[in-house]
Amino acid sequence: MACVGTSDDRVGEVLLNRVMQEQLEEVLYSEVLVAHPTETQEVESDQEQKMVLQLAVMIRTIGDAFKKDGKLDDAIDGMVGQMTSKTNYWKLVEKVFEDGQITWERIAVLFYVAGRIAVKVVIANLPQLVKAILKWTLEYFRSKLLDWIQKHGGWVNSFAALARVQVERMSSMRARSSGLILVFLGGVILGSVITWKLSRRT
User: Which helix (H) or strand (E) covers residue 7, if one does?
Assistant: First the structure.
């Protein structure tokens, strides 16, 4: 059974709050507070603070790759009007863990998705739902994920897995851009050969 109030629970809550707040600030809605500091747990040590800061950066990097895809935002746009209850919200959240498999990457994606949803409800003039989204995400985190996190060595063990995900995404992006460069260069070379052959005929 997951222990609420432990370091892993506290780091998870502070991290989720930070990820959501950062995304809201990116779209110039910084006046919308996710949670007032007195309503949420706070880190208890410099080590926890550093962990939260580093994990927030990793989550942002992983999430930004999904954001560029566009499919995530499209899916969220289609659900914004239905975000009025925890049941409906959890249905969306459970799509992150559709096959029942929990991984560090999926937990990172969940936190990022919560932030994206917060942004979307604010844009849709429903800022009152932001705190509900934080609350519902924390309830999901505590009931479905905290036990897994504790059994897998706590947040401190997430760094290696999340760093690997970042490297894989960067490699895949480089491979895609290398492929595009090769296609472009191939086109330039082919065009040059055709132009050269045509100029020799005249």
Answer: helix 7-26
One-letter amino acid at 150 equals Q
> Where do the structural domains in the chain lie, given as residue ranges?
7-175
Instruction: In whole angstroms, give the CA distance from residue 23 to residue 19.
Output: 6
Residue 15 half-sphere exposure toward CB, CA atoms < 13 A: 28
Q: What percent of the chain has pLDDT over 70?
A: 71
Fill in the DSSP letter of residue 83: T
Q: For the structural domain made of 7-175, what CATH number should be given?
A: 1.10.437.10
Please state the φ and ψ torsions of residue 100, each to the nearest 5 degrees. Answer: 80, 0
Helix axes 129-140, 86-93, angle to 10 degrees: 60
Dist. CA 110–CA 98, nearest whole Å: 12
CB half-sphere exposure, 65, CA atoms < 13 A:
18
pTM of the model: 0.75
Q: For the chain, what is the total number of helices (H) and then of strands (E)?
A: 8, 0
Report how far residue 104's alpha carbon sits from residue 8's, in angstroms, rounded to the nearest whole number: 13
CA angle 85, 13, 154 (to 5 degrees): 120
Cα separation, 99 vs 38, whole angstroms: 37
18-58: pLDDT as tens digits = 999 998 887 764 555 555 444 667 767 888 888 889 999 98
